[in-house]
């Protein structure tokens, strides 16, 4: 399998990981930072914006993971690459949003 497919899987995992906090915050009715807030990524967006942003992330993840290459969740290298993307974005989000909580 080409290395570019693994790049797509990694970023697909990152989009999948970014789907979770936005969607969950939105369906719980809580405001949450998003790229559409003022200032972007620091201000709070409405629950509806977060649900829509989360779903867009899920759609992008779907295309990067399931429509690029021939993804097989039983293959450790493929599933692990998606997991690394999720871990990467999870750590980045924890650091970024952790700083916002301290203020």
> How much helical structure, as a percent, in the residues?
55-70%
Give the overall shape, derived from the CA principal axes.
Answer: elongated
Number of strands: 2
Mean pLDDT across residues: 93
How many helix segments?
3
| Number of individual domains | 1
| Main β sheet profile | 2 strands, antiparallel
Which value, in Å, is the CA radius of gyration? Answer: 15 Å
Strand order of the largest sheet: 1-2
Low-confidence stretches: none
Structural class per helix/strand content? Answer: mainly alpha
What is the succession of H and E elements? HEEHH
Please describe what this structure looks like.
It is a single chain. By secondary structure, this protein is mainly α. The protein has one domain. 70% of the residues lie in helices and 4% in strands. The protein has three helices and two strands. It has a two-stranded antiparallel ribbon. The longest helix is centred in the last third of the chain and has 27 residues, at 76-102. The model has no long low-confidence stretch (mean pLDDT 93).
